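Structure tokens please, single chain.
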Amino acid sequence: MKNLLLLLFLSLTILTNAQTAIKKELKSIETEEQAEAYLETKKSKKNKILVFNEEKHQSKLAKELIEMPVGFTKNERTQFKKTHYKVIKKEKVPHYRISYIFFDGNKMDASKIYDLRKTIMVEHGKGVPFEDLANKYSMAKNTRKGADSGWVKDGDMPIEIENEAFNLKHQVNDIYDVKTEKDNGYYIIKKTYRIKEIREVSVLKVLETID
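Here you go.
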């Protein structure tokens, strides 16, 4: 009985020390660079930096983390594991939102694309909704979403599209063309929203196994 109690005490001590060590490690992390360096010492795909966006992520966890101050940690525990989420950065990031019709210049001749563009503009001028035209003509996969890009930011789409999306000369409901060099793409774009600053939070996620 004494040996059993001793083993239980030692196990609890080891577990407590391990948990305390992780808490101390997380407490010392204050920047994204420190978090990345920390992950280099914790080789696991389950440990990572996550980015939550208040428009894209609507889970209870995401909403809680977005509202937490930088430096705070949230813990979630199950029978076999404990997950730590430490907020390491919060910022407001400019996003844009468009609808677009895409033609692949590698698969379609430029003259054919030009003719289709004229047809699309005529039909839209007669009142055909842009999303219906996208569903009929576009070669992009986003036709399932009504040709909507969702809220996107720098780095999410080709640079030529981003340059025009942030160009203030385009007003909501304006339609314009963009040619992209890398994928030889032709885009007919409709601006659907004004540029919007959206809150994002970077979170260090660390998984702790409970024996």
